[in-house]
Design brief:
By secondary structure, the protein is an alpha+beta fold. It has two domains: 49 residues, no CATH class; 200 residues, Rossmann fold. 29% of the residues lie in helices and 29% in strands. Strands 6, 7, 8, 9, 10, 11, 14, 15 and 16 form a nine-stranded mixed sheet that branches. A five-stranded antiparallel sheet has the order 1-2-3-4-5, with helices on one face. A hairpin with a 1-residue loop joins strand 10 and strand 11. The longest helix is centred in the N-terminal third of the chain and has 19 residues. It starts with 15 loop residues before the first strand and ends with a helix.
Length: 292
């Protein structure tokens, strides 16, 4: 990131163009003479070499602070590059339970990070925020990311998390990067077995308390959920697509994928956590370990 800006020829065609929920352009990806170009529209351009072994900040707009550039690199570009390197990566938050790692999938605003933070506050370490990198071997294992979560201030306040001194994630958002001493101390240093993936669906209460519902997904639904959460840089490369589709097939044969319907509201977090632990068969074990 310390290099001066480099000249990158404007691509003729884009491999991928994504937008924010409000329709604003977000990340565009293209091939170029040095590998790939990742453009975070109005913020910065990164170039990635063909093997995914080097990422260079090619250009940054004046509005982009160092926090913003660090966020784009750490939380946006790196997950795409992991996929390029052959490491399957999902847009998911993860926590470690006595029965293994739980992954939470869901669209922006579904509450993935808040739910992970709730588990973390109850003594279950968060393994990653919005990025689940997976190692396949004798089973499927979640690779640790970093000991921090990106939370809106109301989420942090609801969890009694000290956020006022936490650094901002980027100049364009009010989210804070929560990185506290207990989280650092308890952060797992090794891969952990992936036990289950939950697809979050928030249910509006309309003034009536709603229950937490965990239900199985049909195989085709589970496949589409995992596929849509996959970080893939070059979606035109047939070999990459084939590799990812076969990986998802193997993953679904080994790791259950369930829908998790959760009430809208921070007050429901304890019962959501309790329902997940019960579903895992970890509730009794958690009690014996001293969870409150």
């Amino acid at each position: 990131m310390g290099r001066p800006s480099v000249s990158v020829r404007e691509p003729r065609d884009w491999l991928l163009q994504t937008s924010l929920p409000d329709g604003q352009p977000w990340m565009w990806a293209a091939r170029h003479e040095q590998g790939f170009l990742l453009r975070y529209v109005g913020l910065a351009d990164f170039t990635v070499n063909p093997r995914g072994t080097e990422i260079v900040l090619a250009h940054a707009e004046a509005v982009s602070s160092r926090d913003t550039l660090g966020h784009l690199l750490l939380d946006q570009a790196l997950p795409m590059v992991l996929g390029l390197r052959g490491i399957p990566t999902l847009h998911a938050s993860t926590v470690v339970t006595p029965r293994g790692v739980c992954g939470f999938l869901g669209p922006t605003g579904a509450g993935k990070s808040t739910l992970a933070a709730s588990f973390s506050a109850a003594g279950y370490p968060a393994l990653g925020d919005d990025c689940l990198a997976i190692k396949e071997g004798r089973g499927f294992f979640a690779i640790p990311a970093y000991p921090g979560l990106r939370l809106w201030t109301d989420s942090a306040e609801s969890l009694s998390t000290a956020w006022s001194d936490a650094p901002v994630v980027a100049h364009y958002t009010r989210k804070r990067r929560i990185l506290n001493a207990p989280a650092i101390k308890s952060f797992p240093a090794r891969m952990k077995r992936l036990a289950v993936i939950y697809c979050l669906a928030r249910e509006a209460s309309n003034g009536v308390p709603s229950a937490v519902v965990i239900e199985p997904l049909r195989p085709n639904e589970a496949f589409l959920q995992v596929l849509s959460a996959s970080f893939m840089l070059d979606i035109t490369d047939r070999s990459v697509l084939t590799r990812n589709l076969r990986f998802i097939e193997r993953l679904l044969n080994a790791v259950p994928v369930r829908r998790l319907r959760i009430p809208d509201g921070f007050s429901s977090l304890p019962k959501v956590r309790e329902a997940i632990l019960k579903d895992l068969g970890a509730a009794d074990l958690a009690a014996s370990l001293g969870e409150r």
